[in-house]
């Protein structure tokens, strides 16, 4: 299987999209509609998330495998260390390999009880994402990516510590990074510059910028709370002014995401990673405005 690293970091900016495993059959139908609609946009890869403590492990493996086997898309599977022994992690990695998936995003993961709970390593597991990177790389020909946090991980005491953890993950064998969603370009640029200052090898690592187009007022507040992302006051005020009009909120979301994406690309970001919430319309509209859609693909959709 093609490595994600072969599709990013070149002379032209790329984009990727992210899905999460649905909870029921109706959600899975919506997911597959989005997969098929976004397939025609030719993303560099698509990622499938993995619930805390492996809560969606089997569904994630199955969906990622189906994408690999039934579509033209390149899937990247998430893998979290929380709640798993090394033996269990080896098993999951083997399951991914068995369905033809060789691209993995290695994450320490959030505590099973929520972000505010203490993170406790499994007694026979690993403690850091860098350890997980080494584990995956040691089990075969896998391309491994890691998470990056433009505003700092909620558990990091400061940005310097956070960058040090990211660099440790990259030097453990990760070949690229994908950021958490953010709204302020200066946070991304600061992160990129701090990583690049750690050495020429780090300056060459692609750091994809995570973007989540706003689709609902309550939804974006919830996602910001979970991720620790700061919503600029100007954006929050625009959304709250039309909070009862879903169409207007979504249009603002497309405007805000497009403006951020344009600035990121102008500043040399190697790629954009869209958090789709298993819907395709807003992402496709942003891509259309950016001129990143293939000529035969309309920007409007579901």
Could you tell me how far the N terminus lies from the C terminus, measured between alpha carbons in angstroms?
A: 30 Å
Biggest β-sheet description: 8 strands, parallel, barrel
| Outline | globular
CATH domain class: Alpha Beta
Helix content: 40-55%
The CATH topology corresponds to: TIM Barrel
Let me know the number of strands: 8
Q: What structural category arises from helix and sheet content?
A: alpha/beta
Strand share of the residues? 5-15%
Biggest sheet strand order reads 1-2-3-4-5-6-7-8
| Order of SSEs | HEHEHEHEHEHEHHEHHHEH
Low-confidence region ranges: none
Radius of gyration from CA coordinates: 18 Å
CATH architecture name: Alpha-Beta Barrel
Q: Give the mean pLDDT.
A: 90
Question: Helix tally?
Answer: 12
